[in-house]
Design a protein that fits this description.
heterodimer; A: about 350 residues; alpha+beta; Immunoglobulin-like; Cytochrome Bc1 Complex, Chain D, domain 2; 2 domains; five-stranded mixed sheet; B: about 550 residues; mainly alpha; Cytochrome C Oxidase, Chain A; about 0% strand
């Protein structure tokens, strides 16, 4: 190979060592999905071989040279029924098998750890419950069910981790979820797969799967001091939410303690489960969702709170299991001048040992 | 009678043969005689020239895409430029080439002849649809040259309505206008097939080409208006902020996805069904046999058209629609795959005990069968909701629809163009070089698009101007294949133009095919037939054809 220039040679070597044919299987669902994938590959190969064999063998057997006069055949109900029913049967197997996997990917287990992910042009921002922020990367522990709750601040994005075989669109105005359980420590690709404008192809990052111990180290070294819920509490105070949602007998808004996950009666007569999506809606679009017994007086916070802010508020409310802390916050707001719209200084609402679980 | 064992081509004696005069081409001269014509055959030629023009623009854009992807970095062009290039590639290829390709050219030319009519039912509407097509096409080119558009051909909201600042409205309007061309063509075909069949031409004596176009026409007429509505809403939202798709105003961006795919999935069948019609004609002719299970093939076209309307949400499996909606749409998607499987096997069995020859149209038809089988099967990977999660929005999707649209539809289009070229022009194309072109196309196609399946499985997202370096090897293969494919597409343009002057005189029926269009002179008269044909036999009745020949010989001798 002496006649190949060393530059080209190096290039070829680099090229071929960088050559991938199948993505790593790094989550619990990956081998299950690949099993179906290879079943489909097998069926496709058999189907394709059948078609090619038929076409080639008939072309040889019945070429004009060998078979100068065609024999007219109308058709055959039996044969046609065969190639209707066999593909239909195989497709039904794939349908059921596929649906089982689909439901698994989008039905998180109850004990899954939740991480919020906000997509915006052109980055991914992850909000961990412990208050850790990340941009264009996601650190997760091995062997734990992790649920992602996704939302977009602007256009459609799609959060794709090929090594985990999971993907979910991040959509403006609504939460979507997906979950996975990583099985192998390592660094994997994170892609935005829904075309989102100029820098779409740079909206990529790394998913880092860490061992239990490394993950704990990472959590400790990346924390900002406050948990996500505590950030939410600050925001709750600075927006004076507690002026109404204070659980006093004369409160103008409903108490929020233990509200997460409960069934609420609405003024329209219906009921609704207070989940993430509902809480988000009632912050941004309050007049649409009035709890029974309250007046529609809450102003909208659309444009005042970012999606991350809403997430922090939701996380705060999710962990709020008594009215005590809210009333503490109320007291601090009461100390402020009555002028509206003036945000409470964050330092006045420190969360050290309240009832908010970190 | 031709006794050569390798071909069925039966040409008149070249020493004495002349192109019959008058014919629809020579009857009138001058540009205005073409621009104001009502003749379906002349309009078909206008379409053929214009879609070929747009095909090569779309193809050049595809070449730019492949060149950019030769290296992992975005180095040939800026990402914004790349986004505009793939957007315009998609818009031109889908709305200005694939949708009108077979129906507006071959369908326009052949449907009246196949059913024994003088013209389409509404000749002026037919001309109008060409003008609408040209208006849409020119507007799209204008939008491209004055800054382009970078929404992707899918116009996803809110990206298209609020975030990009390119020519969305102009391009949207171009598609809106071109859409009416498609609606009018479909309407014209439906009316013609219902009302203008010759005596004796019952529904089950229609060539399968006509059945396929009938099914596609229903899709055009019922589906395209929904696209028009969706596009108008995008334009209104962009211009006036009406808020239908804007969550901040109580709208829903997923609504746009529903509206858009309600047309754009059936549009896939608008594109492929006419191609399937071509394949039925070609395979029957070159194996000298009636299509195996005529009724099943005819009804499978209708079944595809009907089921095709109820699968649109399979484009939205990962967008957070209800899991139960996913179940229903996945099931229906599986059902729509079955009629396609039926067609493939019926075509394969048409060859059984036939007397097969391998002229160019037949080679393209074989190419279609292989590539469409792969394209169809990979569609099932995406229709199964579980595997869709991993494969959707990656190069697997790109490879899948190029196998169906390029491997399937473009192969069928080329099969049809070669097959009916002697009828349209009165002259044969050169056989050897066109067989070579068919083989080159097949090889180039596989090299271009097969590596993209592997890229998709690896997770490479579509619409990326740059990508991680480990994907480069496969991308280089793909770009190399695209170069070969480009040669495969340029060749026919060259030799078909050559054949207009130097091709052998074809005579009425060089392939000895059974369709009514072959029982008249080539190129045909403006009126198509000298006497109104009477259909007294089934479609693809080769024994009838033999007896006709025997009669001619008897009367001449």
């Amino acid at each position: 190979m002496s006649h190949i220039s060393p530059t080209i040679w190096q290039f070829l070597v680099k090229w071929l060592t960088n050559f991938a044919l199948f993505p790593p299987e790094a989550s619990k669902i990956a081998p299950q999905m690949d099993a179906l994938f290879f079943f489909m590959v097998l069926v496709s190969l058999i189907g394709l071989t059948a078609v090619v064999l038929l076409v080639v063998s008939f072309s040889i057997l019945y070429s004009k040279k060998r078979h100068p006069v065609a024999v007219q055949i109308e058709g055959s109900t039996l044969l046609e029924a065969t190639w209707t029913i066999i593909p239909l049967g195989l497709f039904m197997v794939m349908f059921v098998w596929g649906a089982l996997i689909y439901f698994r990917v989008y039905t998180p287990p109850a004990n899954a750890m939740n991480i919020y992910v906000v997509g915006k042009q052109w980055m991914w921002k992850a909000e961990h419950p412990g208050g850790q922020h990340e941009i264009n990367s996601l650190h997760v522990p091995v062997g734990h069910a992790v649920q992602l709750t996704l939302i977009s601040e602007d256009v459609f994005h799609s959060f794709s981790i090929p090594a985990f075989r999971v993907k979910r669109e991040a959509i403006p105005g609504r939460y979507t979820t997906v979950w996975f359980e990583a099985t192998t420590p390592g660094t994997y690709h994170l892609f935005c797969t829904q075309y989102c404008g100029t820098e779409h192809s740079h909206m990529i990052g790394d998913v880092v799967v860490l061992s239990e111990e490394d993950y704990r180290k990472w959590l400790a070294s990346s924390t900002s001091g406050n948990s996500l819920a505590q950030n939410g509490e600050r925001l709750f105070a600075s927006l004076s939410c507690a002026a109404c949602h204070n659980a006093r007998p004369d409160a103008r808004g409903p108490s929020l303690a233990n509200v997460y996950g409960s069934r609420l009666a609405l003024s329209t007569g219906g009921t609704v489960i207070a989940d993430d999506a509902y809480l988000r809606e009632s912050i941004l679009n309050p007049s649409q969702h009035i709890t029974q017994g309250y007046a529609p007086i809450m102003p909208t916070y659309q444009g005042q709170v970012s999606e991350e802010g809403v997430i922090a508020l939701v996380e705060y409310i999710r962990h709020l299991d008594s009215d005590y802390r809210v009333q503490q916050t109320t007291n601090t707001t009461d100390l402020l001048p009555e002028s509206e719209g003036k945000a409470a200084p964050a330092a006045q609402a420190p969360a050290r040992n309240g009832t908010v679980k970190p | 009678m031709n006794n050569n064992n390798n071909t069925i081509v039966d040409l008149p004696d070249q020493a004495t043969a002349r192109i019959p005069q008058p014919n629809f081409i020579s009857k009138e001269n001058g540009l205005m005689s073409w621009l104001l014509t009502g003749d379906h055959k002349r309009i078909a030629i206008l379409y053929l020239i214009s879609i070929t023009f747009f095909f090569f623009i779309g193809g050049a854009l595809a070449g730019l895409i492949r060149l950019e992807l030769l290296t992992p970095q975005a180095d040939l062009m800026a990402t914004d430029t790349y986004n505009k290039v793939f957007t315009m590639h998609g818009i031109i290829m889908i709305f200005l080439f694939l949708v009108p390709s077979v129906p507006a050219t071959l369908g326009n030319f052949l449907i009246p002849m196949m059913i024994g009519a003088k013209d389409l039912a509404l000749p002026k509407v037919n001309l109008l649809s060409w003008y609408l097509y040209m208006a849409g096409g020119i507007l799209a080119l204008y939008a491209m040259m004055t800054g382009g558009v970078d929404t992707g051909w899918t116009f996803t909201t809110p990206l298209s309505t609020h975030y990009v600042n390119t020519n969305v409205i102009t391009t949207g309007f171009a598609i809106f206008v071109a859409g009416f061309s498609s609606i009018f063509t479909g309407l014209n075909f439906i009316v013609t097939i219902h009302k203008m069949r010759a005596p004796g031409m019952t529904w089950f004596r229609l060539p399968l080409f006509v059945w396929a176009h009938y099914a596609a026409s229903i899709l055009m007429v019922l589906g395209t208006p929904v696209l028009a509505i969706a596009i108008v809403l995008v334009m209104l939202e962009r211009a006036f902020g009406i808020g239908v798709f804007d969550p901040a105003k109580g709208g829903d961006p997923l609504l746009f996805q529903h509206l858009f795919w309600f047309y754009s999935h059936p549009a896939v069948y608008i594109m492929i069904l006419p191609g399937m019609g071509v394949i039925s004609e070609v395979i029957s002719t070159f194996s000298r046999k009636r299509v195996f299970g005529y009724t099943a093939v005819a009804f499978s076209s209708v079944a595809i058209a009907v089921f095709g309307f109820f699968v649109w949400a399979h484009h939205m499996f990962i967008m957070g629609i209800s899991n139960y909606a996913v179940l229903v749409f996945s099931l229906l998607t599986m059902l729509v795959a079955v009629p396609s499987a039926i067609k493939i096997f019926n075509w394969a069995f048409t060859l059984y005990k036939g007397s097969i020859t391998f002229e160019t149209p037949m080679l393209y038809a074989f190419g279609f069968m292989g590539l469409f089988t792969i394209g169809g099967m990979t569609g099932v990977f995406l229709g199964a909701s579980g595997t869709d999660i991993h494969l959707t929005e990656t190069y697997f999707i790109v490879a899948h629809f190029h196998f169906v649209m390029v491997g399937g539809m473009l192969m069928a289009f080329l099969a049809g163009i070669h097959f009916w070229w002697p009828k349209i022009t009165g002259r044969m194309y050169p056989e050897k070089i066109s067989q070579l072109a068919a083989v080159v196309t097949f090889i180039g196609f596989n090299l271009t698009f097969f590596p993209q399946f592997i890229l998709g499985v690896l997770g490479m997202p579509r619409r990326y101007a740059s990508y991680p370096p480990e994907f480069q090897v496969l991308n280089v293969f793909s770009t190399a294949g695209a170069t070969i494919l480009g040669v495969g597409y340029l060749l026919p343009v060259l030799y078909l133009i050559w054949s207009l002057k130097y091709g052998a005189i074809a005579g009425n029926n060089p392939w000895q095919a059974t369709g009514l269009e072959w029982q008249t002179q080539s190129p045909p008269l403006t009126e198509n037939f000298t006497v109104m044909p009477v259909m007294d036999h089934e479609a693809y009745d080769y024994e009838w054809l033999e007896s006709q020949k025997a009669k001619e010989v008897a009367s001449a001798g």
